[in-house]
Amino acid sequence: MASLIAVQGDITSFKVDAIVNAANESLLGDGGVDGAIHRAAGPELLEACRKLHGCPTGSAKATPGFRLSAKWIFHAVGPVWSGGAHNEDELLAGCYRKCLELALEAGARSIAFPAISTGVYRFPSERAARIAIATVRSHIEASGVQELFFVCFNEETLRIYERLLANAC
Asked: Counting Cβ atoms within 10 Å, is residue 43 exposed (0-12), middle (13-18) or buried (19+)?
């Protein structure tokens, strides 16, 4: 049985096989988690991302981790929140499913996720956490992942994840 753990911290410093980047469709770096991961991984990451030619919303693509402790970076493109009537829930779930598929392909046994789409993309934090946890629980066994971290940027998000994980949302 895989462990699902909520923690607060800097995702770039996690010692896991793969970290997930909350990226935009270009995959070329931006602010927030995306910018922090690009800075920490080094300029080689930008070059690798250019070769991927972007990624559609609701999916993810993999690159090496370069200067990070993680061997892999899975660049997930979450949806921008537009009120909930534009398939946002399914697109967000697609990010988590695709990252677990990438983990299986890469042989990653441990992975760290940020709270995808909850920053500048304005996806409601609790709704996003429910989707993340439900999707991961439904697909983690097939992925081979043994240890999964939900890395929360702030204490409020951490409390949401801790409560939902404890209550088996």
From this structure: exposed
